[in-house]
Amino acid sequence: MSDDSDIQRLLLERDRYAKIVSELTERFDEKVEELSLVRQVGDTLGSSLDQRTVCTGTVDLLQVALAPENCSVMLLDNEGALVLAAARGAFDDEAAAYEPAAQPIIFEAGQGVAGAAVSSRMAIRIDDVNEDSRFHSLPDAEVQPASILCVPLLARGRAIGVLNLSDSVPAAFQPKHERILTIISNAVAMALENASLFFEVARSREALATENKTLKRQLSERFAVGGLIGNSPAFRAALQLIEKVADTTANVVITGESGTGKEVFARTLHHNSARADQPFVAINCAALPESLLEAELFGIERGVATGVDARAGTFEKASGGTLFLDEIGDMPAAVQVRLLRVLQERQVQRVGGSEPIDVDVRVVTATHRNLLDEIADGRFREDLYYRLKVVAVELPSLRERREDILPLALHFIGRFAARHDRPDRPLSRSAARAVLEHRWPGNVRELEHCMEQAVLLSTGAEIEPDDLGLDPASASGIRVELPAEAGDFQDVMDSVQMMAERELILRALHECRGNRSQAAKRLGLARRTLLYKLKRYDIS
Question: How crowded is residue 221: how many other Cβ atoms within 10 Å of its Cβ?
Fold first, then answer.
């Protein structure tokens, strides 16, 4: 009897273990199935950056893996409504296998079981839709579902859509379906988010490319040779010279008074050359002390000074394009030596560095100084001058192109009226006369600022002289005080001539910033004659 009970006990143990093994095997098979499905999802969706492809690929996977009668992906729009993105099943037998339904299917925010799943951010499984008030039937569907499983798509903590399964059989979906669909939803949400981000990046890149093309076109139009305003012989001669050398690699020196537009001419040179698509880099040599100017031009290595990081200089930044060195006449002698070496060897060596860096740069320089006088006085290297001056372009002052003053003034008025959203008012007769009579020591730059002020201050139908803010004493006429008594005619005339001559010399020296050679040239005198008159009139 004891043997029979032992046998019975062993049989029960065997059956129990067999059941456990069967359950474990079943669970193992389910896990393998789940992992296989997750891998398929990853393989199918991970390589796609298109939202439509992700949605259609998802419904294909759901249909094969879970075999529902109907499956769909719905995405939230900007108003919070759910819009059908892809479906397989009874929504539209002909069109919905890979495409959205022929008639758009939209659930307003929170509407239906899908809307409830999105609002709660929780999966919803319904065994019988007749017992759930949240169910929203589709009037055009040939077969209404009996059971539904909805799982929200969550990305970065927010709902972006929902996965829907439905079947005409009640209780068609089990907890394992909910678990698997939840796992899939995470991968789908991530793929959709990546696709959305990629779309935004692509759209931004396209917008930037369009903006870049627009800006390049505007720059080309602004700095086209024909777009520069002026018909005076001296100005047209400078333009023609720029036009001749623009499409070469020749270095150019641009001279002229401050405010004559030297940088505008340099940019025009660049934008009409083969290097127009490459960088244009400008640096003012007079604005920085020697140590900083060296670092800006040639770059610097890390550790040269406390807290200094390595950075490229303007030569490296402009490689392939044009480097504009403004006020080259004010460059310190030590920097001139290094600049000459770079021009000769076409290599730059950073401050504190030991390795030479190849550079391909067209150098355009500008100065208000007479570089030949600077060479004679020992302040500028002659060998550097001839390296920089393959071609020399001299820009006339505004006083030398008086026929261009009014066209330029009207151009500036139009530009600033548009910029500041003000009326494009014309100059009155008296204002035009004041503009023409002004000496414009600041040249085009002064005229530009004057017209901007006039646009901002003018309130009448026309711009009046008071709107210009010009100093009456700076009119181009010469003011000479006559002696109190007439006296001898010749003595008076000699005195008036001397006063006028002294005033003209002082004005020329002021406009040339004390440069005697430039002042003599402006007055049409030999330099020796000017020196004699300076001594005669006791002008220091």
Answer: 11
Residues β-bridged to residue 480? none
Q: What is the DSSP string of 145-191?
A: -SEEEEEEEEETTEEEEEEEEEESSTT---HHHHHHHHHHHHHHHHH
pLDDT of residue 80 exceeding 50: yes
Q: What is the pLDDT of residues 478-532, one digit of tens each?
A: 444 555 555 555 665 666 677 777 778 888 887 787 888 888 888 878 888 888 8
- Is residue 468 over pLDDT 70? yes
Domain boundaries for CATH 3.40.50.300 within the chain: 225-394
Q: What is the pLDDT of residues 364-414, one digit of tens each?
A: 999 999 999 999 999 999 999 999 999 999 999 988 888 888 889 999 999
CATH 1.10.10.60-classified regions of the chain: 489-536
| CATH 1.10.8.60 residue ranges for the chain | 401-474
In the chain, the percentage of residues whose pLDDT exceeds 70 is 81
CATH architecture of 36-197: 2-Layer Sandwich (3.30)
Q: What is the CATH number of domain 401-474?
A: 1.10.8.60
Residue 1: partners with Cβ closer than 8 Å, 6 or more residues away: none
Tokens coding 150: 């909805």
Question: Is 225-394 assigned to CATH 3.40.50.300?
Answer: yes
Per-residue pLDDT, 36: 65
Please give the class, per CATH, of domain 489-536: mainly alpha
Q: How far is CA 540 from CA 75, 234, 523, 536, in A?
A: 83, 32, 17, 11
- State the sign of the Cα–Cα–Cα–Cα dihedral 290, 261, 443, 380: positive
User: What residues does CATH 3.30.450.40 cover in the chain?
Assistant: 36-197
CA atoms within 13 A on the CB side of 529: 10
Scored b (16 or more CB within 10 A) or e, 33-61 reads ebeebeebbeebbeebbebebbbbbbbbb
Please give the full DSSP string across 513-527, using - where no structure is assigned. TT-HHHHHHHHT--H
In this structure, the chain runs to a length of: 540
Contacts for 316-320: CB closer than 8 Å, 24+ residues apart: 316/348, 316/357, 316/359, 317/279, 317/281, 318/278, 318/279, 318/280, 318/281, 318/359, 318/361, 319/279, 319/358, 319/359, 319/360, 319/361, 320/275, 320/278, 320/279, 320/360, 320/361
Mean pLDDT of 159-170: 88
**pLDDT tens per residue, range 267-314:** 999 988 899 889 999 999 988 888 889 989 998 888 777 667 888 999
Average pLDDT, the chain: 81
